[in-house]
Amino acid sequence: MLISIASVKGSPGVTSTALALAAVWPRPVVLLEADPSGGDLAYRCKAAHGGPVAANQGLLQLAAAVRGGLPGAGVVVDEAQLLACGVNLVQGVTRAGQARAFSGLWPTIASACVDAEVDVIADLGRLDRTGPVMPLAEHSTHLLTVAAATLESVMHLREDVQDFMGTLAQAGAISVCPVLVGPDARAGRDRSDLDNLLDDAGIAARPTLSMPNDSKALARLEQGESPSGRLGRTLLMRGAKNLAASLGMTELISA
Question: Most Cβ neighbours (<10 Å): which of 79, 101, 188, 246?
């Protein structure tokens, strides 16, 4: 299964949502930093051995592995590194110029993610229908479109999702799931407001989901704290479990 997470203007909470979701995912999973403008989890997170994430594994090496041939089922896992928090990460490029060097390989990378021996959660950064990572969105079982819980952000989400829904429809039955990142206290009202906005625009998306702002818990996760301990009771991790359960990961409903 390939789950893609993207924003439509900027990246408000995309990487944080992807990391938290990967940390609680109940099946073997790899987190792929596929943002062509560059990833930053290698700078924000510790590797399992306590040091920095190694530079000789990641998206660049994955692109090289799939170039010129059909990749095997283990090619995505081969380029993943274990973070201290327990997430297996395929780190992204560090600058946009690196991604341009393999711009034609995104469809093959997407196929490798679908065929991988594990689930893949892909952080796409900002998404638009003419962008290079659109093949990942088109190959996804679920596409999570993330916005901040502000009027400006949700209006951009409505306009941009409407713009690329036609492209996604041509690719098949892809589940588009809006996700609002904002204060937990008003999450229910914010979800309802966005659902009504999308319904009025005739956008066939799933009911809006939410992730709470919880910067302290996020910092603990990035520093390597296990999500199965006290961290698992924080708003961030409980929100990630609810998000996973909403995507059909029923193992988490009673967790």
Answer: 79
pLDDT at 210 over 50: yes
> Alpha-carbon distance 93 to 40, whole Å?
9
Q: At what angle do helices 187-200 and 151-171 cross, to 10 degrees?
A: 50
Q: pLDDT confidence of 92, banded at 50, 70, 90?
A: very high
Residue 170's pLDDT is what?
73
The answer to whether 217 and 234 have CB atoms below 8 angstroms apart is yes
Residue 83 bridge partners (DSSP): 47
> What is the C-alpha to C-alpha distance for residues 15 and 138, in angstroms, rounded to an integer?
20
- pLDDT, one tens digit per residue, over 164-191 is 887 787 766 678 899 999 888 888 899 9
Complete DSSP assignment for the chain:
-EEEEEESSS-SSHHHHHHHHHHH-SS-EEEEE--TT---HHHHS-BTTSSPPPTTSSHHHHHHHHTTSPPPTTHHHHT-EEBTTS-EEE---SSHHHHHTTGGGHHHHHHHHHHSSSEEEEEEEE--TTSTTHHHHHT-SEEEEEEESSHHHHHHHHHHHHHHHHHHHHH---EEEEEEEE-GGGHHHHHHHHHHHHHHTT---PPPEEEE--HHHHHHHHTT--TTTGGGGSHHHHHHHHHHHHTT-GGGTT-
Q: How far is CA 212 from CA 74, 77, 127, 149, 206, in A?
A: 34, 30, 22, 10, 19
- Residue pair 105/67 in contact (Cβ under 8 Å)? The answer is yes
